[in-house]
Amino acid sequence: MFSTSLYPLVLEAIRNGDFSFRLPTKGVLPGERAARETINHMMELMQEQRQDIEMASWEKLTRTLTHEIMNSLAPIVSLSGTFVQEESIRNSDLYEGMKVIHETSKGLRSFVDGYRKFSSLQLPQPENIEVEILLRCLQTMAGEVDIEVKVEPANLQLHADPNLMRQVLMNLMKNAVEADAKHVLISAFRDKLKTVHIVFYNDGAPIPTAERNDIFVPFYTTKKTGNGIGLSLCRRMIQLSGGSIALLPEGTNGWNVGFELRIKN
Fold first, then answer.
1. Residue 200 and residue 169 in contact, taking contact as beta carbons nearer than 8 Å
2. For every residue of 128-158, which 3-state class applies, written as one string?
3. Is residue 186 within 8 Å of residue 132, measured between CB atoms?
4. Cβ contacts of 42-51, under 8 Å, gap ≥ 24
5. 217 — phi, psi (to 5°)?
6. Quick one: which H or E segment has residue 230?
7. Are strands 257-264 and 243-247 parallel, antiparallel or unpaired?
8. What's 5's DSSP letter?
9. Residue 46 and residue 166: Cα distance in Å, rounded?
10. What share of the chain has pLDDT > 70, as a percent?
11. Residues 218, 118: contact at Cβ < 8 Å?
12. Which residue has the higher pLDDT, 81 or 27?
């Protein structure tokens, strides 16, 4: 029988929108374990549904905003570019101001174009991938970060788009490097439901509690030079591959930061 003392924990997690909350299933009686596993599965489904709804809303907003902004920027970039090439402007007091307008509008156009990628990702072209080979490619961008890769079994395969998966892993690696991580552990395995799990741990700076619920929100960033597109793109690419990505609780298995990718095969 399910312990009623756990109801407040589940209800509090739902009220806070924390659908990554999971009840422990080890060290309990079989009946209790079955009830907890059912609740954990329901929380997973609720998390996936919420992510799908959020992503659809953000994509619609992004398409609208980028279309309107790009249309407005086009003549500004074009005209200011023409003016800064004019000899009469180059030799006048207007040159520096016009140059600033041109460079700023070009930068903004590039910035907005990055968001356009969020709503125009290619449809996945899945194929069988050797997970070991997929993960080893990260060694090339690790720099001074020590990477440990554990794949069980060693010949584990994943049916997904290799380009999308590679981009997701590279973004996670980039985040670890920017968080001053010194060690990274990537663990991959397949569970009894044939879902492939790829868990990406690093010992970089922990993600503050107040920011954990927002890190997958498009345009949200705490970095001075960030644009807030990286993790939201990761989540979208994983969703296109029929999977999900979640931020694990701080301290999971002794690591500061952990992300878990799940791909159903």
1. yes
2. EEEHHHHHHHHHHHCCCCEEEEEEECCCCEE
3. no
4. 43/10, 43/13, 43/19, 44/19, 44/244, 46/14, 46/19, 47/19, 47/20, 47/244, 47/246, 48/244, 50/17, 50/19, 51/216, 51/235, 51/239, 51/244
5. -75, 125
6. helix 230-240
7. antiparallel
8. G
9. 27
10. 85
11. yes
12. 81
- The residues with which 197 forms a beta bridge, in sequence order, are 189, 262
Torsion, Cα 183 157 124 147, to 10 degrees, reads 10
Q: Which two tokens stand for residue 131?
A: 């997970």
What tens digit of pLDDT does each residue of 99-139 get? 889 888 887 787 677 666 655 666 788 999 999 988 887 87
C-alpha distances in angstroms, 27 versus 5, 24, 36, 80, 146? 16, 8, 12, 69, 35
**Residue whose entry in the numeric block shows the structure tokens 């999977």:** 243
Condensed to tens digits (0 to 9), the pLDDT of residues 147-159 reads: 999 999 999 999 9
pTM for the predicted model, two decimal places:
0.62
Is-cis flag, bond preceding 153, omega within 30?
A: yes
Beta bridge partners of 195: 264
User: Token match 């329901």: residue?
Assistant: 42
DSSP state of 27: T
Q: Cβ(19)–Cβ(47) under 8 Å?
A: yes
Residue type, 49: Q
**CA gyration radius for the chain?**
23
CB atoms within 10 A of CB 244: 19
